[in-house]
Amino acid sequence: MTPPQRLRARVALLTPQLGAFVGPGDRVIDEFALVRDSHKGTRGVAWCATPRARRALATAGARLGPAVPDPVLRRVNSRAFSAAILQGLPGAVFARSTREVRAMVEALGGAPALCKRALSHNARGRRRVRAPLAEADLYWIEKSLQESEGLQCEPEVERVDDWGLHGWLSPAGQLTRGALTRQRIDPLGQWQASAQESAPELEAALSATLSSVAEALVREGYHGPFGIDAFRYRGPQGVALQPLSEVNARFSMGFAAGFGDRLKSLLEE
Question: CA-to-CA distance for 180 and 178, rounded, in angstroms?
Fold first, then answer.
């Protein structure tokens, strides 16, 4: 499927922020301005190694490493995969029917919930709803369920801060860990920046979560870059941690910050 114009525009805005991903002599390939064999013999690395991305790199003549099958890539990037590992917010569910969504929302007693499509990113494909569900909400929910395997539905909470932790899985399943990063997210939920930051009170929990995600990825047959998103929020008992809000089985904008000077050696594997 051809990416919509709005997504292409968003990618164009983010490209200048790639920073450490693009070193001396590196080039970012635009699939809509490809010149065949223009990068013949160079190492090709896909942001997310979909068949479309790999075809573009191959057309440019780049050398490609071993591929993860597309069905595996789709499974591990789905919110269903993340939800099966850990539902960190009280009352959150991965719903596969309108009935399940309605029950979850009604259990909140009028407080808002966020419903997120199984495959979406960067604050896209989500809707804020509350009981009783409006007709427009039901239409969006039913359409979303028809188009994907389900909806991640969770209580909307007041986020205190956002964090990321990244890893790299070799084809043999060996995990290399990045450093903890703090993420700057705008009010719409879109990533703005990441930087390494020490937070000893979080590191044990997030490291354990990264290990659990890595084990699940290996079982699915995935290898390559991945990351977890996490955040702290204000709950009834004070500030609490959501240690796994999302799994990104691909590169992410904070990946370079998390690996720093080690990034180049990973990309050359």
Answer: 7
**What order of strands is seen across the sheet that includes strand 151-155?**
93-95, 151-155, 113-117, 126-129
* Residue numbers in the chain where pLDDT is lower than 50: none
Within 10 Å of residue 117's Cβ, how many Cβ atoms? 22
Q: Are strands 181-185 and 224-235 parallel, antiparallel or unpaired?
A: unpaired
Q: Which CATH architecture has domain 93-155?
A: 2-Layer Sandwich (3.30)
At 33, give phi and psi (nearest 5°): -140, 40
Q: What is the pLDDT of residue 80?
A: 97
Pick the CATH number of 72-85+158-267 from 3.30.470.20, 3.40.50.620, 3.90.950.20, 3.10.120.10: 3.30.470.20
Q: What is the pLDDT of residue 124?
A: 75
Q: What's the CA gap between 101 and 124, in Å, rounded?
A: 19
pLDDT of residue 65: 86
Residue 43 has a pLDDT of: 86
Please tell me the predicted confidence (pLDDT) of residue 50.
Answer: 93
Please report which helix (H) or strand (E) contains residue 249, including its range.
none
